[in-house]
Design brief:
Strand content: 15-25%
Shape: globular
Radius of gyration: 20 Å
Largest sheet: 9 strands, mixed
Order of helices and strands: EHEEEHEHEHEEEEHEH
Number of helices: 6
Number of strands: 11
Amino acid sequence: MRILVSNDDGIHATGIRTLVERLTFEHEVYVIAPDRERSAAGHSLTLHKPLRVEEVEMGFDVACAWATTGTPGDCIKIGISAILNVTPDIIISGINHGPNLGADILYSGTVNAAMEGAVLGFPSIAVSLSNGSGQASDFIYAADFILRFIPKIKEINFPKKTILNINVPSIPSSDISGIEITRIGTRMYTDTYEKRIDPRGKTYYWLAGEIIQTGEEEGTDIMAIRNNKISITPVTFEMTHTEIMTELEKTFCDGSCDNLYL
């Protein structure tokens, strides 16, 4: 298959390098990733300054690799729209250094690089390792899992406007107890900001929140990781809350939305 790979940890991060190396064993791989860490960039795009793109050597047998000054979303959008002269079969974002679980996916550059792929109509996957020291050996199992997982994509009717968000426990492979198809859990933080003073006497703030350990229901991505399972969550950007539409029509339209009475 022809695969486009990106991430939010930067093109030189161990996670993406390990993934790319393993993918090149069997696939035609292109890489477009930020030139530096862009964690928590969310689904942001660069609008008010130029994007610079530079071809880089990764040391693996990739078809081609580029680093950009933009966000993960920029990487996918400019890659598809301007850089690649081929069409990828699938887009993979990762392997992220750390989990992307629960509400964290709203902020995750890793997840949103994949989401940009879905916006553009491509089957897209985000993959994260729950922890790790940053050594290549930490990411090999996750990379090999994705290598084995890719052929399965052909067997499903990959839904539009949807990505697969995959989280792999950072434990010895012999301790992984299986795979679980999950829904998004709840992952809350204390959102504490530390107030500090820089050497010039100016005030600045540093986000230093900690995870709130709350109870989680079975079937969520968070519980799957706690149970030493690989979590696979289908996530859609179709955010319309259809269940409340009838109630809204009844409340605001009073039988007919043609009459504006507000």
